[in-house]
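Hypothesis: this fold can be encoded by more than one sequence.
Test: take the C-alpha cells below, design a sequence, compare later.
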C-alpha cells in the first residue's frame, strides 16, 4: 500500500499538562473558562500543524461544555489527536482531564472537537495529508467525525429558521411563560 501523502494518528498525537495557578482563577475561585479555551486552542494547533506540516487556523469548535469545575493547584491535561481529515481541513479531538495531585483523583472536564484549516505562506487554504487509521478506535473516531459533520450541516439548515421574522403578537404569545417582561 502506498502511504506517501498520509500520516498516522500517532505522528501528531499531543498532550499538554499545565498546573492551574492562582492567576487563572475567576472571582469564585475556580479556573476561568477562557484559560481552558486558550489551552484547547493551543493543543489543537500543535496537533493540527504537526499533521498538516504547515500553519493552521481554527475554523470551528464543536462544542464546549464545562462538565465540572477545576480548582487552583490541579494539573490539567489536554490530550489531542487528529480524528478526521478532509481536503484542507482536519478535526482534532481533545479530551481534558484534571488531577488533584494530593488525592490523585482524576476528573473528566470536557471533550471537544476543533476543525482546523491548513494555510500556506500566503494565507491560502492548502491540502493536508491523509490519515492512516491503525486501530478500531481510530476508525470509530473517523466515522463519528463524518457523522458529526453531516449532522452539523443539517443543524445549520434547521437553525436558519430561528431568523425567520415573526409578528410581535406571535412573539408575545411565545414569551408568555418565559422569564421576561415584554414592555411594548
Ligand atoms: C475558516 C476558513 C479557513 C474557511 O476558509 P474558506 O476558504 O472560507 O472556506 P472553504 O469553504 O473553502 O472551507 C475550507 C475547509 O474548511 C472547512 N470549514 C470551513 N468552515 C467550517 C466550519 N465552520 N466548520 C467546519 N468546517 C469548516 C470546509 O469544510 C473545508 O474543508 P475541506 O477542505 O476539508 O473540505 C476561513 O474563513 C478563515 O481563514 N477564517 C479565519 C480563521 C481564523 O482566523 N481563526 C482564528 C480565530 S480567532
Amino acid at each position: 500500500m502506498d502511504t506517501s501523502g498520509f500520516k498516522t494518528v500517532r505522528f501528531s498525537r499531543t498532550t499538554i499538562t499545565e498546573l492551574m495557578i492562582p492567576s487563572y482563577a475567576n472571582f469564585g475561585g475556580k479556573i476561568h473558562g477562557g484559560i481552558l479555551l486558550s489551552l484547547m486552542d493551543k493543543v489543537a494547533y500543535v496537533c493540527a500543524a504537526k499533521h498538516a506540516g504547515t500553519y493552521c487556523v481554527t475554523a470551528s469548535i464543536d462544542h464546549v461544555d464545562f462538565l465540572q469545575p477545576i480548582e487552583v493547584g490541579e494539573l490539567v491535561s489536554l490530550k489531542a489527536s487528529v480524528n478526521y481529515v478532509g481536503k484542507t481541513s482536519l478535526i482534532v479531538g481533545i479530551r481534558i482531564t484534571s488531577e488533584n495531585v494530593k488525592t490523585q483523583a482524576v476528573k473528566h472536564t470536557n471533550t471537544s472537537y476543533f476543525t482546523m484549516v491548513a494555510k500556506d505562506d500566503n494565507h491560502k487554504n492548502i491540502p493536508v495529508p491523509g490519515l492512516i487509521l491503525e486501530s478500531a478506535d481510530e476508525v470509530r473516531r473517523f466515522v463519528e467525525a463524518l457523522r458529526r459533520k453531516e449532522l452539523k450541516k443539517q443543524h445549520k439548515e434547521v437553525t436558519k429558521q430561528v431568523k425567520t421574522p415573526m409578528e410581535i403578537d406571535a412573539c408575545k404569545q411565545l414569551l408568555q411563560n418565559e422569564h421576561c417582561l415584554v414592555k411594548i
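The chain is about 30% helix and 30% strand. The mean pLDDT is 97.
Hypothesis status: open.
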